[in-house]
Design goal:
This protein folds into 4 domains: 179 residues, no CATH class; 158 residues, no CATH class; 87 residues, no CATH class; 49 residues, no CATH class. Helices cover 41% and strands 12% of the residues. Strands 2, 6, 7, 8, 9 and 10 form a 6-stranded antiparallel beta sheet that branches. Strands 1-3 form a two-stranded antiparallel sheet. The chain has a two-stranded antiparallel sheet with strand order 4-5. The chain is built from 16 helices and 12 strands. The longest helix has 26 residues. α4 runs parallel beside α7 and α11 packs antiparallel against α13. By secondary structure, it is of the alpha+beta class. The chain binds adenosine monophosphate (AMP) and magnesium ion.
Length: 496
């Protein structure tokens, strides 16, 4: 008995002009097996996890089952990749099976990654490897557990089908959920071709689907679009504040990987900060460090500017007066809303991590000094804050602390003395925002290596762990540890 075919589809994207997509079916994975199933994601779709038939689920996840109401398509988009304009990208290995609407009226794209070649595959094979499917699956849950907006995944199917990357690996598919997969690059695709009507169509689609309250239909188009653009800039800024506060590095912040909804999208060679380094580069193919950890907020703003350029296609003033500062002024003002959205959000998150209930002069300096200590001493970022929450030894045994570290702790203690309330309440508050468990590369790697030997149990254990990263989880403590030995040297590339 299953309820997968009770899903209610409303495929709005497939009703857009055919220029938006290719109609294409998944290429089924041969002899698939179930690698992972996420009951929390099933609930988002109103599915009862206990009633899902595992064989049917495996067939759905592997592209072998077509649900009634599904209308598979691959979306077209473009993008700036490492700063370089690429006019044609698109879903080269992912297929939008359709859009499901749940009882709360929420819309969820069912997006099958690794589902075979499409018109947009270029030289790629249309597949994903098991390693990258597991990394994406766990990352979505880990970020969701931290309260960071992100895509989720319903599950993973695997197959022994060989896939050639740097080494020969095996294929897997991941069924990803997001309210929308529209990217900055979806707008850029049509704007660059001068297809203004398509830009308008996409704008109206996104508004109707996601933010019907955001802009009044009665207002002139340019005003509505500028307001939308400001909203995207602000959402993106708040997402960046969360990434930076939690030590997350995405690794490939090309405009085709930037969600129009400000959610984390397209996990590749991401990484969580361990020994703190603002210059941390998680993607070893990013030789220049364009997407280094600390550069992410600035790069996201650069990406917003590219989106803005695409959207100005809908502003006749800009079209009539190209390059005119006056015509661009409302757009510049929208873009300028980025830092005023980022800064207070980041400050708020970091005050929370430091356990500061009040805002005081000197807090910014206290934080800057701390980041200097973390950087100089390469302290493990999550461990530092978790121990600070316990008011235990933050980072390392006292005798190992640097002069600067000890000085900072004194300054911090003095600052806490000016806080109202009890220290015990503070410790609890801090533990609710300073995770004990973040998805360290070595932990993901252990789950991957076991899965490659057909033992999928650790994936499920980690899913549960990361759904509550603030809990203590007795027996799981080793997953909170920084890497040691060869695990320090795990490198992650784009080749997924
Ligand atoms: P990504 O770096 O994963 O965001 O992918 C960038 C672009 O390359 C997107 O258009 C992908 O669909 C496409 N792509 C990546 N890997 C493959 C693959 N194995 N086969 C086909 N297209 C791919
Ligand atoms: Mg991508």
């Amino acid at each position: 008995m299953t309820n997968l075919d009770s899903l209610v589809f409303d495929n709005a994207y497939a009703r857009l002009h055919p220029a938006f997509y290719e109609v294409v079916d998944p290429t089924p994975l041969p002899e698939p097996y179930l690698v992972a199933f996420n009951p929390d994601a099933a609930v988002l779709l109103d599915l009862d996890p206990a009633r899902i038939d595992r064989d049917e689920l495996t067939a759905l996840l592997s592209g072998n089952l077509r649900l009634p109401g599904s209308e598979p398509i691959a979306e077209a988009y473009a993008g700036h990749q490492f700063g370089v304009w690429v006019p044609q990208l698109g879903d080269g290995r992912a297929i939008l099976l359709g859009q499901v609407v749940n009882a709360r009226g929420e819309r969820w794209d069912l997006h099958l990654k690794g589902a075979g070649r499409t018109r947009f595959s270029r030289f790629g094979d249309g597949r994903s490897v098991l390693r990258s499917a597991i990394r994406e699956y766990l990352a979505g849950e880990a970020l969701a557990g931290l309260g960071i907006p992100t895509t989720r995944a319903l599950g993973i199917a695997g197959s022994d089908l060989p896939v050639q990357r740097e080494e020969t690996e095996t294929a897997a598919t991941l069924l990803r959920l997001a309210p929308s997969h529209v990217r900055f690059g979806s707008f850029e695709f049509f704007a660059a071709r001068g297809e203004t009507e398509r830009v308008r169509e996409l704008f109206e689609h996104v508004i109707a689907q996601q933010s019907p309250d955001l802009v009044l239909a009665s207002e002139p188009l340019p005003i509505r679009v500028v307001r939308f653009f400001a909203e995207v800039c602000e959402r993106t800024a708040r997402l960046m504040a969360r990434w930076i506060a939690e030590g997350f590095a995405h690794g490939v912040m090309n405009t085709d990987n930037m969600s129009i909804l400000g959610i984390t999208l397209d996990y590749g060679p991401y990484g969580f900060l361990e020994g703190y380094d603002a210059g941390f580069i998680c993607n070893h193919t990013d030789v220049e460090g364009r997407y280094a950890f600390g550069r992410q907020p600035a790069v996201a703003l650069w990406n917003c500017a590219r989106l803005g350029e695409a959207l100005t296609a809908l502003d006749p003033d800009v079209a009539a007066n190209p390059g005119s500062e006056e015509a661009l002024a409302p757009w510049q003002a929208a873009l300028d809303s980025y830092w005023p959205a980022f800064n207070p959000e980041y400050a708020r998150l970091m005050r929370g991590k430091l356990g500061l209930a009040t805002e005081q002069e000197g807090d910014a300096g206290l934080l800057q000094e701390l980041l200097g200590v973390l950087q100089a001493d390469r302290l493990d970022y999550p461990t530092f804050f978790r121990r600070l929450s316990g008011l235990g030894s933050p980072g390392r045994p006292d005798e190992d602390r640097s002069e600067r570290h000890r000085a900072w702790l004194e300054r911090y203690a003095a600052r806490l003395a000016g806080e109202p309330g009890h220290a015990t309440g503070r410790a609890e508050r801090m533990q609710r925002v300073n995770p004990k468990y973040v998805l360290r590369n070595w932990v993901a790697q252990e789950a991957i290596e076991r899965a490659q030997r057909k033992d999928f149990s650790l994936i499920e254990e980690l899913r549960r762990l990361f759904s509550d990263p603030f809990g203590e989880h007795p027996g799981m403590e080793r997953f909170a540890e920084p890497p040691s030995g060869p695990a320090r040297d795990i490198v992650v590339s784009c080749s997924s």
